[in-house]
Amino acid sequence: MNRKITTLLFILCLTSMISGNLFAEEDITWVAKSDMFTARAHIGCGVIGDKIYVIGGYDGFSSLSTVEEYDPILNNWTVKASLRIARFGVTVGVVDNSLYAIGGRTSMNGDSLTLVEEYDPVMNQWIVKSSMPTARSMAITAVVNGKIYVLGGEPSYGSISNAVEVYDPLEDEWTTLSSMLEPRYAFAVGVVNDRIYAIGGYYFTGNLRKVEEFDPVTNSWSIKPDMQEERSWHNAVSINNKIYVIGGADSTGLLNKVEEYDPSNDVWVQKENSLIPRMSFGAGVVDNRIYVMGGYTTNNPAITPTVEEGTVNFLVINQPPVAVCQNITIPVDENCEAFITPEDVDGGSYDPDEGATITLSVDNLGPFTIGEHCVNLTVTDEHGEFDTCQAKVSVIAETPPPVTIVELTNYVINLVIQGNLDNGAGNSLMVKLDAAIKAIDKGKVKTAINQLNAFKNSVKALEKSKRLSSFEAQLLIDAADLIIGSL
Fold first, then answer.
1. Same domain (yes/no): 86, 174
2. Is the pLDDT of residue 189 over 90?
3. Residue 292 and residue 151 share a domain
4. How confident is the model over 409-449, as pLDDT tens digits?
5. Of 398, 424, 440, which marks where a domain is finished?
6. Are residues 144 and 235 in the same domain?
7. Given this model, what pLDDT does residue 318 score?
8. Of 137, 143, 150, nearest to 43 (Cα)?
């Protein structure tokens, strides 16, 4: 069965579920956006709500304390409260709408810092938090379940770390975890399904394409497939359970290449290049759009204030509908014939695609004579995809409702035996009838009536959920009413 494919621009928040639809990625469309006020590289970057914050950095002469906020909707920048201490190579994590600027250093050859500052965007102010145990710059952060994981980096100029420490903002405490398998700095991370992926970077042997996966639950690392390109000073973002690695540098120079990693099948795929090669830049995601900003470029001057927006375009893949049938029992009319509609034998057919519409049809609407007949229900979506199922139509002579509670009980049992009512629903109805019988035997009329009314409500619910035909439901309700009237 061929599946038709329609194009859809995927516009859901990064943390949203993908409803019932299936998507396959296309490429990324890149466009230039408004420049930052200050050209800078080695910046920290974090997203709070629908705003992107660029923290600190290096302008080619000195470290910066300045902070800028980018509004992607208005495409403009606003200056915010500066860091308490100017620094670059700072890494950033966001938890509960607070931004944490961690580590970094104040000069190109200076010592790395343990400093942690928390930014409150509502108050537009910074406060100092508990220091990181290991001084580091050029480290990378990942946030999982409200905790900030700091990985690798440079403890001092010319050294490379594989240390991993986690910060709990609620407790303002740090914990040391299992180290990465490979020491590295100038790398990138992505988070998918609460797993952290350390990607590429630099070690003394050169640029890396190696990838490691960290499981915070087991506090353990495992090796994953290498990137296609070795690179350092790149960045990465996560969208729709995929990781997009952007730019950086290899042994030949700066890159604008983009790779996508799918952890579900461990496959790397090349995507559309960003507009310009850049390294040591910031990146963030708002409404499923990638924003890269600043860094070193091949242009003059080398450090840039430029910003690019990358929109990930998706294909929505149509999924066929699912046909669900129910067996029904119907009486003949005055001409000893019976007719049905598709809805009569529909037991809750559905389409897994969100917002899709379906149509129902059967291969035989009647007339039917007394006896059992099989019909085929076909469910079709707007793309022509379909599914079928078979239902049994039992045609009977007009049957008067049971007039005693024992007759009603036997009728429910027969519905189950004939396959017109599932065991679970039959047992639920029988429990209420048994309770009514016991109440009648004890002379507790009010209790019996309450149980019979509960029986009627259950029958209505079964009819609504299409677990019982309308004919059978009305017959059971009429019988219950007759019995109530006789008490």
1. yes
2. yes
3. yes
4. 888 888 888 788 889 888 999 999 999 999 999 999 999 99
5. 398
6. yes
7. 81
8. 137
- Residue 237: is its pLDDT beyond 90? yes
Q: What is the mean pLDDT of the chain?
A: 90
- Domain range enclosing 468: 399-487
pLDDT at 24 over 80: no
Asked whether 221 and 212 are in contact (CB, 8 A), the reply is yes
Q: Tens digit of pLDDT for each residue in 258-279?
A: 999 999 999 999 999 999 999 9
**What was the pLDDT predicted at 16?**
28
Please report the pLDDT score of residue 12 as a whole number. 24
- Residues 394, 328 contacting (CB under 8 angstroms): yes
CATH number of the domain at 374, please.
2.60.40.10
Overall number of domains in the chain = 3
Which pair of structure tokens corresponds to residue 201? 């970077």
Q: In terms of domains, do 206 and 341 share one?
A: no
Assess whether pLDDT exceeds 90 at residue 335: no
- 230 and 193 in a single domain? The answer is yes
Single out the residue in 398, 415, 448 at which a domain terminates.
Answer: 398
Residues 335 and 484 in one domain: no
In terms of domains, do 280 and 387 share one?
no
Same domain (yes/no): 426, 484: yes
